[in-house]
UniProtKB/TrEMBL annotation:
Gene Ontology MF, one: protein dimerization activity
TM stretches of this protein: none
Classification via Pfam families: SpoOE-like
Organismal lineage: Bacteria, Bacillati, Bacillota, Clostridia, Eubacteriales
Top-level taxon: Bacteria
GO biological process terms held by the UniProt record: regulation of sporulation
Listed name of the protein: Spo0E like sporulation regulatory protein
Length: 44
């Protein structure tokens, strides 16, 4: 997840917030974040 966060920051700096490439990376990261949140909730 850390690598994808760093990639997202690079894409934001290079392409901006609304570029399709940036949005795609952001959506990939969203999937990982939601999966981790679900894992943490299920562990309770």
């Amino acid at each position: 997840m850390k690598e994808l966060q760093e990639k997202l920051h690079r894409y934001i700096e290079k392409y901006g917030f609304t570029d399709p490439r940036t949005v795609e990376v952001s959506q990939e990261l969203d999937v990982l974040v939601v999966a981790e949140q679900r894992r943490l909730i299920d562990a309770c």
